[in-house]
Design brief:
Helix 4 packs across helix 5 and helix 4 packs across helix 9. The strands form four sheets. Strands 3, 4, 5, 8, 9, 16 and 17 form a seven-stranded mixed β-sheet that branches. Strand 1 and strand 2 form a beta hairpin. It is globular and about 60 Å long. It has two domains: 212 residues, Medium-chain alcohol dehydrogenases, catalytic domain (Quinone Oxidoreductase, Chain A, domain 1, Alpha-Beta Complex); 131 residues, 3-Layer(aba) Sandwich (Rossmann fold). The mean pLDDT is 97. It is of the alpha/beta class and 349 residues long. It has ten helices and 17 strands. Bound molecules: NADP nicotinamide-adenine-dinucleotide phosphate and zinc ion (2 copies).
Length: 349
């Protein structure tokens, strides 16, 4: 075991603070990564504050948008070399043999994927995984991503969750040239959804509760902006979209967004608020609409997304922070006061 500096929440009420954690010794298939940057996802907040049905195990070290540099590799590692830039996302293990793991969709492992934090290691030790708000992580090479980027590493970090979580459903929904896409909730996930949908050639509309995001939405490439505080503001857009991607972090109903879908339109749900939403079946049957949930993406797809971003120079829009700012960052995220992702410079730990 190797002691590593980290930042953790010790209860749902307490602010995050310093904690020393133990990382496992390097196994033959493991890669030891010095963490350079870690993005701050709203799931970190949901977990730290135990907003998902009491599932948090304390102390919890959040962080699953990790970019770092390989410090050491186990004897059997073939894909990574010391000094290489790499990423670790939301998942660090899965069963590897079920149908879904075998078809590169490890995030839907039949036994349940192992999350980068707040999950039980699969080695039977009962140890809990700790995330990227830490100086280093040890991860099996199968769940480590290759980062070709060398300059804007901080801007790459959010791709490991916000990026793949929006890329995967947009691809699943076959978003392409001319598809009419609305993105609801212009946060960390939402702004990546806009960038990807634009890159795929779609006509993109941002639906946001924040009037202050109008100009920036245009800079992200969005073609239209709707300032929507309530369902009435959405009325003129009834049945206008092929795809609506819902990346809202707070409690809300699906019906107003379903109503925006035209024939066989899809509501792609990635936002994970605390409470159950309301859905009116009449809004669902009209136009044969569907609601499609999506959880991050598999390792292969994540690598494809990273390579596409490298080729097209797509990065997250970020505000880099010191680790000591993390509790303020959480408060600002809850208020929607960030354009669009906080990324922690881990050298400040
Ligand atoms: P974020 O950066 O905080 O953005 C959330 C956005 O939701 C805000 O920017 C805001 O957009 C909108 N919003 C917030 N409160 C609202 C309210 N009361 N009513 C309407 N809109 C509101 O969060 P994020 O990191 O992008 O994460 C978004 C959600 O996705 C979270 O629930 C997170 O846990 C979840 N998530 C899911 C997966 C997955 O695999 N499915 C992966 C990662 C994260 P506007 O200002 O534009 O209104
Ligand atoms: Zn996340
Ligand atoms: Zn599996």
């Amino acid at each position: 075991m190797q002691p590593v500096k980290a930042f953790a929440a010790s209860s749902s009420q307490s602010p995050l603070g310093p904690l020393t954690i133990n990382r496992r010794d390097l196994g033959p298939h493991d890669v030891q990564v010095e963490i350079l940057y870690c993005g701050v996802c709203h799931s970190d907040i949901h977990t730290a504050r135990n907003e998902w049905g009491g599932s948090t195990i304390y102390p919890v070290v959040p962080g699953h948008e990790i970019v770092g540099r390989v410090k050491a590799v186990g004897a059997s590692v073939t894909q990574f070399k010391v000094g290489q830039n790499v990423g670790v996302g939301v998942m660090v293990d899965s069963c590897r043999h079920c149908k879904n793991c075998q078809s590169n969709q490890e995030q839907y492992c039949e036994e349940g994927m192992t999350g980068t934090y707040n999950a039980k290691e699969r080695d039977g030790s009962g140890n809990i995984t700790y995330g990227g708000y830490s100086a280093a992580i040890v991860t099996d090479e199968k769940y480590v991503l290759n980062v070709k980027e060398t300059d804007n590493l901080a801007g790459v970090a959010p791709l490991l969750c916000a990026g793949i979580t929006t890329w995967s459903p947009l691809k699943f929904a076959n978003v392409k040239k001319g598809t009419k896409v609305a993105v609801v909730g212009l946060g960390g996930l939402g702004h990546m959804a806009v960038k990807f949908a634009v890159a795929f050639g779609a006509e993109v509309t941002v639906i946001s509760t924040s009037a202050s995001k109008v100009a920036e939405a245009g800079k992200l490439g969005a073609h239209h902006f709707v300032h929507a505080k309530d369902a009435e503001a959405l009325q003129p857009y009834d049945s206008k979209f092929d795809v609506v991607l819902d990346a809202i972090s707070a409690d809300h109903d699906y019906t107003p967004y379903l109503n925006l879908l035209g024939l066989e339109g899809k509501l792609l749900v990635v936002g994970l608020p605390e409470h159950q939403p309301k859905v009116l079946p009449f809004a669902l049957i009209k136009n044969r609409r569907s609601i499609v949930g999506s959880m991050i993406g598999g390792i292969k797809e994540t690598q494809e997304m990273l390579d596409f971003c490298h080729e097209h120079k797509i990065y997250a829009e970020i505000e880099t922070i010191d680790i000591s700012y993390i509790n303020e960052a959480y408060e600002r995220m809850i208020k929607g006061d960030i354009k669009y992702r906080f990324v922690i410079d881990m050298s400040t730990l």
